[in-house]
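Blinded run. Sample ID left blank on purpose so nobody reads anything into the name before looking at the predicted structure. Input follows.
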Amino acid sequence: MIARVAQMYHIEKQRQADIAKHLRMSQATVSRMLKRAVEEEIVRTSVVAPPGTYAALEEALRIHFALPEAIVVECSEERDGAIMARIGEAAAHFVEATLQAGEVIGVSSWSETILKMVDNIHPMKAAKARYVVQTLGGMGDPSVQTQASQLTTRLAKLTGAEPRLLAAPGVAQSREAKLAMVSDPYVRATMDLFHAISLAVIGIGSIEPSRMLVRSGNVFSSHELQEEVEAGAVGDMGLRFFNAAGAPVVTPLDERVIGMRLEDLAKVDRVLALAGGPGKVEAIAGALRTGVIDVLVTDKFTARRLLAGVGVDPTPLLEDA
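Blinded prediction complete.
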């Protein structure tokens, strides 16, 4: 009888009320039988992943890095430009599907991958954000600064939000210069919104800064970066450095950064990290171990390298692709 009820409900698509009437039993009995059908494995659920998806790789990343969610994208070639484009597309779909009305979005604007994400977001009519907050100083080389400011303002326009720009450089010349800049009421007003961010979209940087960041001038010198390496740093999120174990690396240089700190990022409800490419594997692994990231969007090549780095053979995990 349980099998018959399950067949009528799952195969014949009949409503529970109609099944109860046909079999002369109560709807509560039908409901209990459907529950038992699952418990006794008369009914089994299987999810068939479509081609080009990597459910097994995503599951392995979640397990081995204690990661709440992972999205692994298909990419035909292991080239930075192609990888950034595909990650940006996937992140755009994720934001469109999960953004809640009234959210405060924090965005690190010196990221080419995040720029690709913004390029792929469609204007939202229903779930509108409240603010889009720039989480790392946006001033620098005027030509690149415009690009960074546009990233923030475009994302705000697409999500129906009000943009809040951080009108200060990402790296001040000195600690004293930083203190003077953050005392500006407009800079302070933006930084005061850091605690209200509900969705942070970040990139993960290796010790070698990205081309966009280099062009902006918001970088440390090669000598200063060497100091970070000697202190154990393998990468950064918003110019806040961490080591391979995920612990923050705090040096005097940290006091010159105008932007969100790792401890503030850890308090955000959802942190969406976009990163991929062979040059960032060590940095991504360290970033995942900080415990800050809730969702990682990466490519299949990087996912395989991350898992190989923790002793997992990724080859069998590609069979479902």
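Unblinding after everyone has recorded impressions. The longest strand covers residues 69-73.
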